Structure formats: structure tokens, C-alpha cells
Amino acid sequence: MAKILIVDDSALSRRVSRRILEPAGHTVAEAADGLSALETYSLDRPDLVLLDVTMTEMDGLEVLNQLRAMDPLAVVVMATADVQSSTRVLAEAGGAVGFVIKPLTAETVLRAVAAALLGQAGGAK
Description:
The protein is α/β, with parallel strands linked by helices. The protein contains 5 helices and 5 strands. It has one domain: 3-Layer(aba) Sandwich (Rossmann fold). The longest helix has 12 residues. This is Chemotaxis regulator-transmits chemoreceptor signals to flagelllar motor components CheY. Pfam families: Response_reg.
């Protein structure tokens, strides 16, 4: 199973993600903002980042850009309640390999994570 970094400014969303990922055998770390995410990523080098798009201070798209600059092979799945196709296009252009829509469900998260870890672009819609 994989080491996954959950990045979300909502404690509830991080808790929901953790409750989905840990029973599936993944090891989880959390970050509540973009700066913490970048620090945690540089120290822990997780296999995958589940990254919220909308956050204060530094949004998920900016975090994605900085993660990919730090590690061009970073595997990132975006999570958001923003269903605009422009957000998805920006995330994919930034290098995200998956996209899940909130509210998160176990099925969509685990499917997107599995696809991303296997190197298949897309994920849950």
C-alpha cells in the first residue's frame, strides 16, 4: 500500500479522507495548508498527494505547481467541490493525475488513488 499525504484546510475533510484511506491499507500523513504540505512532502516523499483545490493562503493549484517544481514525478490527485471544468483543466495542465469531487466517497477516492498509483490518468469523476 502507499504513503499518502492528505492536504486540506478542513479538519473534517482530512478526517473523512483518512477514514477512507487507512482501512484500505494506506499510511496517511496530513497537512492543513499549502506551506505545511510542501514541508511534509519534502521530508516524507509520499507516494501520492490528495490535494484540496480551495484553501486559504495558498490554493491547491499553487501547491500543485510547487510540488511539481520540487518533484516532477509527484503523483497528485486533486479533491474539490468546484465542479467547473476550467478547474479540472488547470489541475491537469499542472500535472495532477486524478480528480475527485467532494463530498468524497470511499469508492471515488479509492478508485482515483488506485488509478494514480498505477499511472493511469483520470480518476473519479
